[in-house]
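In practice, a research group might receive sequence data for several interacting partners and want a quick structural hypothesis before committing to experiments. The following worked case mirrors that situation: the sequences arrive first, and a predicted assembly follows.
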Amino acid sequence: MSITFYVPRDSGALALGAEKVAKTLENEINARNLDAKIIRNGSRGMYWLEPMVEVETPGGRVAYGPVKASDIADLLDGGLAEGKIHRLWLGLTDHLPFLSRQTRLTFARCGITDPVSLDDYRAHNGLKGLQNALTLSRAEIVAQVTESGLRGRGGAGFPTGIKWKTVLDTAAPQKYIVCNADEGDSGTFADRMIMEGDPFVLIEGMAIAGIAVEATKGYIYIRSEYPHAIAVMNEAIEVARKAGILGASILGSTYAFDMEVRVGAGAYVCGEETALLESLEGRRGIVRAKPPLPAHKGLFGKPTVINNVISLASVPIIMDKGSAFYKDFGMGRSRGTIPLQIAGNVKYGGLFEAAFGLTLGEIVDDIGGGTATGRPVKAVQVGGPLGAYFPRALFDTPFDYEAFAAKDGLIGHAGLVVFDDSVDMLKQARFAMEFCAVESCGKCTPCRIGSTRGVEVVDRLSANIEPEKQIAVLTDLCNTMKFGSLCALGGFTPYPVMSALNHFPEDFRPAPVAVAAE
Amino acid sequence: MQSASTDTANRAIGIIDQFKGLEGPLLPILHELQGEFGYVPKETLPLIAHALNLSRAEVYGVFSFYHDYRDHPAGRHVLKLCRAEACQSMGGDALADRARQLLGIDWHGTTTDGAVTLEPVYCLGLCACAPAAMLDGEVIGRLDSERLDEIAAEVRL
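A structural hypothesis for the assembly, expressed as tokens:
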């Protein structure tokens, strides 16, 4: 019987040596004359175990990890092909607690299938959502997405169905679907993982969006820092086009939809939707004032749905299982599941998809296992560089859009960066201001000037020059940026700064420098 | 014999013609030019402006706005070190200082032997295996000082 091995092609696995592992395994298969093939799957999202090699057995897939190329010969000698016990043996993949505790809806196939095999995709319930959508009217599709309670997973949390309805209701000869894959927030990698691990789900989601709002053209704007995601998406789009999922007649229907990948050029601000549209049009990534909304006048002035990768990739399961199924997960007004990305100084870092409502403490201590360094957790930044730093005292906050807003934070794109007690929060506040200064598009004054002044104020603070005065200026500056900036870059930079200041005041009032003894 | 600048212009015009029919062709053209030449030669900017019916200022404005585009060639190798929060939490700042010291250059600088250019990058999406880096497009996770020393030696060979 032919043996099937899995070695991920996910960037995270590659960064830890998966390519060498796959090459070595291939050489050994040839040298030993084994009847075996290697499938390059996506990642299951357990990065402390990557590169994680799996083998298909009658009882299910068995995992080994983290595997080094130099382990391969020994693994094969020890019965890797039969899933036998070895020092790197982890057991049945599906039974690993980190995986079995998750609710994988959006990431149901990620790490399981061959990302660019359409047969695999179909065999794992792919395209069912699209097929269902083809039996419904445009308004019915939009209604189903609205009823599911799906909100923008990019961070703003705007109801996806309402956005779609606005575009559907706006008549125009040409409309667009734009996928925001400019995942620039530190601590986030869900978009990257789904594009590298299950690109067809995003293609399917975009096609459904196109049908729903009468758009025939889609663009995926992927950041240039993600070369592997770009390659896999391009490969998958080509496969989908050949199979008739994209093109003049989606799955033989009367609907037409096609899409292409566009690559960013290293500007963080292009993750802001209107700056992204400017960039797609071939201009500087300068934020547009709203209104008009992109839903009315978006790409090239045409009605445009612009959604995050995870929002669009969550649509197929909603169209497959129904809005009630999806809505049943979650809490309050945060419905469905959210792919948490646990990152930074954490023992078990990776992607954990779960219904909304887990507390921050459960995520960091229980699922993440505390810090990688073994030192106490001091702070967790939630929601990327524009998200607040949470102290342990707020670890009872449930993961929910409103609950985080109530604590002066945001869930953003659901990335969590854990810091141990060696972190200097004054330095982190300075970095937030510095990052804003580097990445500001320059259109509005509070962001452009405020961030630079912010760095200067923090520097005076760390030099202990009239600290109370600096803190007052910093607070006032943050207030101006928060309420006076045009977009979230300037508007949210105060979150990390003020949370650091409010929750960790001891780092902002350094002890007076000891005078050296004469 | 063709002069170097005519050769550059011809290659650039070939690329511009290939992409100018796209919707919003400017970024794809700049990417392709950088892929072809390793940077965007400044003499190509007026050619783009002419082909896309834009002013030279507009083209220059776009070119200079984005961090990715270079106006001069990089070293033989390009080492990008992630400077963002997740990598900071795992000692990225100390590694960055070490890299600058080992190579004797600051951010965006190229070693005098032309071996390597050092660039900051804000997130490679490898935040669960930080600190992260990218060497000539190859991703590297859990970078440590030992691996960094190896890289610094390798790139100078």
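Before designing any experiment, note the following. The mean pLDDT of chain B is 96. The interface with chain A takes residues 23-28, 30-31, 52, 58, 61-62, 65-69, 82, 84-90, 121-130, 132, 134, 137-142 of chain B (CB under 8 Å).
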